[in-house]
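tool=predict chain=A
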Amino acid sequence: MFYNPNNADSPRNGGLPFNPFKAIVAPRPIGWISTRGPLGDNLAPYSFFNAVNDAPMQVMFAGGLKDSIRNLRDTGVFAVNVVAESMIDAMNASSETVARGVDEFALAGVEKAECAQIDCPRVALAPATLECRVADVLELTGENWMVVGDVVGVHIRDEYLRDGRFDLALVRPVARLGYKDYAVITAPFELARPDELS
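tool=predict ok
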């Protein structure tokens, strides 16, 4: 079958009842973005999130014009908190659409901590948090925005380190799939590139 995203209602479009795009581009890590603004602190999960560079370290996330985007445009900073399996309910609670200025940390019962190099809250019990300075904010189509951030600091909770490595089997990070589906990473494995085998 062929699906045309610009003609989704056509019966010649495979008859799919739902857009398959987010299920195809999956799994996606969840960027649990925390910011501080003139109306207080904010915490919101973004499923369009990923790393885009490692030297220098950079991340991106995208979404509508919500408190997160407004705050970081004003302050120039934000933090990305890793969502562990144990935090699924809190992450989901923080996704609720609420009035501007509502503190989602309090709404979701999430403990706060301060970042080290930027004026921004972070999720105290997150397995890892990336402190970021805004590198660019781009307006996309459909009233969406993409933020690129330079990572200026990394917090890692000691219990998630094993032999000097951030152990994803211990973290069990949550990933976003399509529709209303999520996944938990439980069985990472190593795979060497062919040129690393010789």
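The radius of gyration is 18 Å. The chain has one domain: 30-196.
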